[in-house]
Structure formats: structure tokens, C-alpha cells
Automatic annotation (TrEMBL):
InterPro entries: Gate_dom
Protein name stated in the entry: Spore maturation protein
Keyword Repeat belongs to the record: no
Nucleoside transporter/FeoB GTPase Gate domain: residues covered: 43-154
UniProt entry keywords in alphabetical sequence: Membrane, Transmembrane, Transmembrane helix
Species of provenance: Clostridium thailandense
Residues annotated as transmembrane: 6-24, 36-58, 88-112, 133-153, 165-187
Length: 191
């Protein structure tokens, strides 16, 4: 659906430029934007490689494991059925830890594994369990300790301090995660 919306926005803009006699300006703008887009993507690729390397060091140094140990007792309180199953809990902890550390590529397989484990524990096959819904909410409203993508984009466009968003990101994502969990717990009693 969004592809259709973007197509009509672009088509309308180009058509409007041609009708108003600004076709040359439109074509110059298109060429200029493609040039700046390629430069941005190339800059982002390098910065993302750097962050992936840093996060891999954090993973291999045991920092993510330490974070997982802190999370495990909290998550055992939140998840009813999954708290009793070590496989499900392990996948949930690893997914959330990877997301917190900005390792979204590493988080995806753990997220898939966590959902598979939660599905195995689910008593009804056609309906998501409360634990499945809670995991999905926590995954979507994940606390970000290192918002690597935002830092990378800010650095690529020449920000003087690309990491100044770290503290606001921690505060806002923590607040969002807390509210999401509270709302999920309230709604699971009614549905």
C-alpha cells in the first residue's frame, strides 16, 4: 500500500513540475537527490560496519551475557508459562539483550526461536498466548542502550555530536517499554 502512496506522490510532483514549466528544475532535483542518496548510503554502510564490529566485541567480551543475567529474573516475573521453560526463556533473553545492544541482525534469529518456543508452549494453536503477545510488545518497544542506527545516520549527515541522542533514547525507550508491558498486562486480563 505504501508503495502506491509513494508512487502517486512522486508522479504528482513530477507531473506538477512539468505542467508548471519547471521540468528542468525537477530533473535537476532528481539527479541531485540520487547523488546525495548514494553518498549517504555509502557513509552509512561504513558506519554500520564499525558499529557491528563494536557490538560483536561487546558480545564476545561477555557484556551481552552479563546483561542477559540481569534481565532473566525480571523476565521470569513477566512471563507466566515461558518462565518455567528454560529454552523459551533463553531465546527471549537473548533476543531482548541483542536488541538492547543494537545487534538487530543477531536479534532476529533469537526472536524467531523465541516465538517458536512460545508457540510450542501455547495450548491453543490458532490464538497467540499472553506470553507471545508480551514478547511481541517487548520486542517492538525494546529498550535501546545503544541506538546504533540513529547514531550512524547522524554521523553520516555530518552531526557534530552523533551520540548525543543516547541518553534521550534510553529514557524514551525505557518509558515506552514500561508502558507497553503495563498495558499488555492490563489488557491480558480482559481479553
Amino acid at each position: 500500500m505504501i508503495n502506491i502512496v509513494w508512487f502517486f506522490i512522486l508522479a504528482f510532483g513530477i507531473l506538477f513540475g512539468i505542467i508548471t514549466g519547471r521540468g528542468t528544475e525537477v530533473s535537476k532535483a532528481i539527479v541531485a537527490s540520487t547523488d546525495s542518496t548514494v553518498k549517504l548510503v555509502m557513509g552509512l554502510a561504513g558506519i554500520m560496519c564499525l558499529w557491528c564490529g563494536i557490538m560483536k566485541i561487546a558480545e564476545r567480551s561477555g557484556l551481552t551475557d552479563k546483561l542477559a543475567k540481569v534481565l532473566r529474573p525480571i523476565l521470569k516475573i513477566l512471563f507466566k508459562d515461558a518462565a518455567k521453560d528454560e529454552k523459551a526463556m533463553g531465546a527471549i533473553v537473548m533476543n531482548l539483550t541483542a536488541n538492547m545492544m543494537g545487534l538487530s541482525n543477531a536479534a532476529t534469529p533469537f526472536g524467531i526461536k523465541a516465538m517458536q518456543e512460545l508457540k510450542r508452549l501455547n495450548k491453543t494453536n490458532d490464538t497467540a498466548s499472553d506470553d507471545m503477545a508480551l514478547f511481541l510488545v517487548l520486542n517492538a518497544a525494546s529498550i535501546q542502550l545503544f541506538p546504533t542506527t540513529v547514531i550512524s545516520i547522524r554521523a553520516a549527515v555530518g552531526s557534530s555530536n552523533p551520540a548525543e541522542t543516547v541518553i534521550p533514547a534510553i529514557v524514551t525507550t525505557t518509558t515506552a517499554a514500561i508502558f507497553a508491558v503495563v498495558l499488555c498486562k492490563i489488557l491480558e486480563k480482559h481479553f
